[in-house]
């Protein structure tokens, strides 16, 4: 179809396969995995759909030109040549961000500045007017990616990172990023067909993402704005049609989603965020110290949590991780427990053998998502049966 174009969805390390699967399920064509990104083909309506509906994407970029850079001047010349009037009014506003892996260019800020200069000069030379820079709410956000000698200029259709869903009003000391939270739950294989628990729920991010996955609610419905809403070809009717079609695919959920935290302030914040996300019908949050609790439901329990790492919260690590293992072993039979940690040393103190370990990054911290299976009764009895 002639209205189709190439796009790139950026993601976190380790989520490429999840994102590729999400894109295929939404209806993307020609899906190809990269490192921290997945490329695909779709039309304008699909670009809107990807921004609204993808749980593990951080940005959706629309590449408009790729070229080779041999000398420093090539960047300015090639950017100047592009038909910027198609994308921006002479009196509009723009922002440029850049990522650079190159011997010719050392600094991403310099690349962003030269790109901005070329666009501004082009408008000034052809119209006598020039666009201004607006880093917060530009009419056009431009992304420059230089990998060795290859430069790609893209329009950023998302604007603010897509992890900013819009439901979180209150956060704690070490909040988990919403995209990371959604990815952890998806990697854990949770499908909404059992009870779910986060025993150290903080500001409630894992609970909210779990509820949206269970009910198939598009994650970015509550965003205040996407960058494409300021583009010259913005089609509000098409956007509303796409939004409606995604909302028709939501589904019922018949289990419980439970959150615990031992800090009263965290419980308050989590409740506020869950209410703001309109998910309080599905989620209950209680003021509990996980180490003093027992499994609150019959049947299989699916647990995903993000324990403190000791990076930003002062705790006695070895004892803390030993307590996690003991509590799971003694009080949580019939539970699949998953958690992420960057404290690889502390993992040794859990005292249980993980059945899975997945390498991820939480921000810049190399981490592991680990799974512990707690059997009903003893493991030996289970195998004898």
Short description:
This protein has 2 domains: 5-156, 2-Layer Sandwich (VC0802-like); 178-217 and 251-381, Vaccinia Virus protein VP39 (Rossmann fold, 3-Layer(aba) Sandwich), CATH 3.40.50.150. Helix content is 31%, strand content 25%. It has 10 helices and 15 strands.
Layout of secondary structure:
Elements: E1 5-10, H1 16-26, E2 29-33, E3 37-42, H2 44-53, E4 59-68, H3 72-81, E5 93-101, H4 108-127, E6 132-133, E7 140-147, E8 150-156, H5 178-187, E9 195-198, H6 205-215, H7 236-247, E10 257-261, H8 264-276, E11 283-287, E12 301-305, H9 317-331, E13 335-341, E14 356-362, E15 365-374, H10 379-384
Helix pairs in contact: 2-7, 3-4, 5-6
InterPro entries: RlmKL-like_Mtase, RlmL_1st, SAM-dependent_MTases_sf, THUMP_dom
Domain THUMP: 46-157
Keywords: Methyltransferase, RNA-binding, Transferase
Structure description:
The chain is an alpha/beta fold and 385 residues long. The protein folds into 2 domains: 152 residues, VC0802-like; 171 residues, Vaccinia Virus protein VP39 (Rossmann fold, 3-Layer(aba) Sandwich). A hairpin with a 2-residue loop joins strand 7 and strand 8. It is elongated and about 75 Å long. The N and C termini lie far apart (57 Å). The C terminus is likely disordered.
